[in-house]
Amino acid sequence: MKRRDFLKIATGSAGGAAAIGAAGARSSSASAAVQEGEENNTSSGNGTTGNGTTGNGTAGNETTGEGEGGGDEFPGAGTTETVAVGPDGQNIFDPETVYIQRGATVEWVWESPGHNVHATNVPEDADWDVQTEITGPEFTYSYTFEGPLGEYEYVCDPHEGVGMVGTVVVNESGEAPGGDGGGGAAQLSPHDMGVPFQAHFVGIATILMMIVSLVYAFFVLKYGESQHASAPNKE
Q1: Cβ(55)–Cβ(80) below 8 Å
Q2: Cα-Cα-Cα-Cα dihedral sign, residues 21, 27, 31, 37
Q3: Which of 77, 105, 200, 232 is the most exposed place for a label (fewest CB within 10 A)?
């Protein structure tokens, strides 16, 4: 193949790939705009016909939440977390740390004998001072945490020395710091940040870069050094 023909093919391919990428981006933007418009229309309809006028916004949410002790005062009301006591014969609480919102209930379920739950360190003004009997399977104990936010620490008296301790953390979110138990900030994907990031865009960009690299390699192999550089074997 002649050099001129190769350059024509490479240039045409690069231009075609760029055009396809631009068309895909325009298509994605148009689709997002249509979807946003549909969502706005749906929200407007719900606000006028259902929630705003009929009763969800007036009678349902406000009356149910505050009247039954829910709402902002006890956001965790009605939820239950389970802690296994001595699972598989091990001297542990599983999970060792539980994160809940105020109003949530924690239930301890005995799975092996010889354990108890004894509250040892709780927030000021909290009234959780339980010390259950030392018992075994089929015994359960539950408590609804409606006291102050903070850490409620407890132990198994017979096995505290081998590390059988636990903590109930009552906080605003009911989740571990970071939302995933890892202690770090939650990561947002490009799509969540409004970037039209799609797999075929990555493929198009990769092909385009490959073509550019081939063209560059061709010039380097064909012409080598610049004509103004020294060339011992060149007249």
Answers
A1: no
A2: positive
A3: 232
Which residues in the chain come in under a pLDDT of 50? Answer: 25, 28, 30, 32-35, 38-71, 181-186, 191, 235
All domains in the chain, ordered by first residue: 73-170 (2.60.40.420)
Dist CA 196 CA 41 (whole Å)? 22
Type and span of the H or E element at 149: none
| pLDDT given at position 73 | 80
Residue 68 has a pLDDT of: 40
Nearest to 131 by CA among 96, 162, 158: 158
Helix 3-45 / helix 199-223 crossing angle, nearest 10 deg: 160
For every residue of 86-155, DSSP letters joined together read SGGG-S-EESSEEEE-TT-EEEEEE-SSSB--EEEE--TT-----B--SB-TT-EEEEE--S-SEEEEEE
The DSSP bridge partners found for residue 107 are 82, 142
How many alpha carbons lie under 13 Å from residue 150 in its C-beta half-sphere? 12
**Which residue do the tokens 């249509």 mark?**
34
pLDDT of residue 163: 96
Phi, psi (rounded to 5 degrees) for 118? -130, 115
Is the dihedral angle over the CA atoms 192, 195, 196, 197 positive or is it negative?
A: negative
Query: Which uninterrupted H or E stretch holds 120?
Result: strand 118-121
**Cβ neighbours of 228 (radius 10 Å):** 6
The answer to whether 136 and 112 are in contact (CB under 8 A) is yes
